[in-house]
UniProtKB/TrEMBL annotation:
PROSITE patterns: MPN. Residues 14-135 form the MPN domain. InterPro entries: JAB_dom_prok (IPR028090), MPN (IPR037518). The keyword Hydrolase applies. It comes from Natribaculum luteum. This is Mov34/MPN/PAD-1 family protein. GO terms for biological process: proteolysis.
Length: 164
């Protein structure tokens, strides 16, 4: 997706890819008893074989320098990429509470969807919120994600095309 395409893409978030949700749940569980935090990125639904306009959350970026403990996760905001595919955040609450804290609400300004995952980190132990901390619905979508190995399979022509 080039910059022009990104500026005029659909802003509707259709949901989160099932594999992406599983990754976030597993990462949160692996971080327990500390919180886990990452930034969410999306892909145009049409690039995933869906016949709809909108975005699907497909990636979780772990930001270098993120500090976590059992009650908080702090991201160094200067390390967050200025990314047109950025949609929001995901973090865990090891205590299992699926409501945003006051500190969470302060971080919700960056992006339009924020996911909180709670212990014991099952497929049902998460909730999505909008940028104001209001609970929202986020569908889990079964799509085939590109192979991670394909991420590094590109040429200079691919880079030039992306920059156009």
């Amino acid at each position: 997706m080039g910059l022009f395409d990104a500026l005029f893409r659909s802003s509707e978030i259709l949901g989160i890819a099932g594999e992406t949700l599983e990754f976030a749940l597993e990462s949160a569980e692996a971080s327990h008893p500390n919180e886990y935090m990452g930034m969410l990125r999306g892909t145009e639904a049409s690039q995933l074989g869906l016949d709809r306009d909108g975005l699907v959350i497909t990636d979780v970026l772990v930001i270098p320098g993120t500090e976590t403990n059992s009650v908080s996760a702090t991201v160094k905001t200067n390390q967050i990429p200025n990314d047109v595919r950025s949609l929001g955040s995901v973090h865990s609450h090891p205590n299992g509470v699926l409501r945003p804290s006051d500190a969470d609400l302060q971080t919700f300004g960056r992006g339009s969807v924020h996911i909180i995952i709670g212990a014991p980190y099952r497929r049902t132990d998460w909730q999505a919120f909008d940028s104001h901390g209001q609970q929202t619905t986020l569908d889990v979508i079964d799509v085939e994600l590109p192979d991670a190995e394909d991420f590094f399979d590109f040429t200079q022509a691919d880079i030039d095309e992306e920059l156009r």
